[in-house]
Design brief:
The chain is of the alpha/beta class. The protein is built from five helices and nine strands; from the N terminus they run βαββααβαβββββα.
Length: about 170
């Protein structure tokens, strides 16, 4: 398998746990790193990047970026060496409480990687979710894996396993 970096933010919660599960299914010959430590990575050394995020109110819906480490990362790294590299994104959200903004941050991540020339892989079906709207949906699929640990934690392990298998074929 090609060399993969799994990069996630925020830490200490469901996004980190999901990143760890993804990493464990890929195997230990890859890299798992918190976004706060991503400056230690040479993105040019990787064939694929898997990026994870959580959707939180102000950072997404009001376009505020002060507390969003992904926004800071992209602002500081306008020329990441990822052109033509495969990138998959995943995100966590609450489809019941935030049913009109479920996993919206996935769109932001996808768009930032596309701006830098990445090839996005890992689209995920919307079936089985209970939300009204999401900017992370395009042509009937999520732009990456959508997870809801608040309302469907029993599905997370299965969804991650299926998505990782899908990625292995797409990489």
């Amino acid at each position: 398998m090609k060399k993969i970096a799994v990069v996630y933010w925020p830490t200490g919660g469901n996004t980190e746990e999901a990143a760890r599960k993804i990493y464990s299914l890929l195997g230990s010959d890859h890299t798992l790193v918190n976004l706060n430590d991503a400056d230690t990575l040479d993105f040019g050394d990787y064939d694929c990047i898997i990026a994870g995020c959580a959707t939180t109110g102000a950072e997404t819906w009001q376009k505020a970026t002060a507390g969003n480490n992904w926004a800071k990362f992209f602002a500081a790294n306008a020329s990441l060496p990822i052109a033509k590299k495969k990138v998959a994104v995943f995100g966590l959200g609450d489809q019941i409480l935030y049913h009109n903004n479920f996993c919206d941050q996935v769109e932001y991540l996808r768009d930032e990687f596309v701006k830098r020339g990445a090839v996005i892989i890992g689209r995920w079906p919307v079936e089985g979710y209970q939300f009204q709207e999401s900017r992370a949906v395009e042509d009937g699929h999520f732009m990456g894996l959508a997870l809801d640990e608040d309302n469907q934690p029993e599905l997370t392990g299965k969804r991650i396993a299926e998505w990782v298998n899908q990625l292995k074929h797409e990489i």
